[in-house]
Amino acid sequence: MADSISSDDVRKELEKQIAELRKEIGALGKSIADRGAETLERTREAASEAVDRARGRTRASFQQAREQAHAVTDAVKENPGTAATILSSAGIVGFVIGLFVGATLLGSERR
Question: What pTM was estimated for this model as a whole?
Answer without folding.
Answer: 0.44
